Amino acid sequence: MPEGHAIHRLAAQFAQVMSGEVVAASSPQGRFTAGAAVLNGQRLTDVQAYGKHLFLGFAPRQVDTAQTTPDSKSPPTWLHIHLGIYGSWRFYGDSEFTSRHVGTALNLPESTQQTAEIVEIPVHTHHDDSAFAPHEHFADRWFWTPAPFTAPPPYGTVRLRLVTAHGAADLSGPNTCELLDVEGVAAVFARLGPDPLRPDCDFSEFVKRCATRQKGIGEALMDQSVIAGVGNIYRAEVLYAARLNPFTPAREVTSRKLRRIWDWLKEYLPLGVESGRITTASPDDYAVFVERELAAGREPQAIDSRYYVYQRQDRPCLRCSATVKLRIAGGRKLYWCPRCQR
Predict the structure, then answer these.
(1) Domains present along the chain, CATH in parentheses
(2) Sign, CA torsion 172/174/176/180
(3) What tens digit of pLDDT does each residue of 30-73 get?
């Protein structure tokens, strides 16, 4: 399941390429036909991300065709999306659409052929030009097609298609796809814990919600009603950074240690939004680790350069060389270093 940084990045992408645009909405799959009919012909006026939830706000066009702004008297209709495990967005567009993409520049194929095939563009690549694993750019599946733009036939089971003059976005496999009014959006916000990526969320609310949880802090961080947007990777890495045993009851964790968690997330989540990729291991720590492993006759693995503990079970800790452990907690894999996180 995508973590909060990916949804905030996705929100930035929508704001960049579709904000202010009138959309033609449809449901090729047929499971969101009524909702698509409501959105059809409306203008995207607002984009919000809260934890793992995406909200796209739409408003009708004014009757006066000379006006290009939405009708400010009409309350927005909100499209609420939670991708879950299998959901994804796929973007199509011409050069004008893709040139507005936020983040790493797109390498558009050089072609003047109006009949050129659509080409998939990996937005983020490693230094050796190989694309990231699919789950790391689930919302960055970009396809280029020559102008004038014509949306290609839907690929797979598309729940919702949004088309503008220069591009399209296809939604497939979401856990939640629904229309909400303002009160409905507020209700979703109310049941979520604070999101460190949002300026309107604060540390004190995180402390208050942790104080009511007997479950381990490792499980509490995955509870979206405690803190929104944290997933399995950030959970493992922030607990390592805070030197905190993941099985310590959340209500017993001191405010000082909770502050370590909050401040680390406030630093690293924006880096994930910017790059579309989670990397937490310090290059200096990794360099020392490589020297130590080679001296011991062992070869470092690719995962060692990215994380301190996540998916590194049975591997040496980057800092202390203790064996990283794995346990199932709350139905999810939890990784930790038993020496660094006592």
Answers:
(1) 2-62+71-107+148-183 (3.20.190.10), 193-341 (1.10.8.50)
(2) negative
(3) 999 999 999 999 999 999 999 999 999 999 976 444 455 555 56
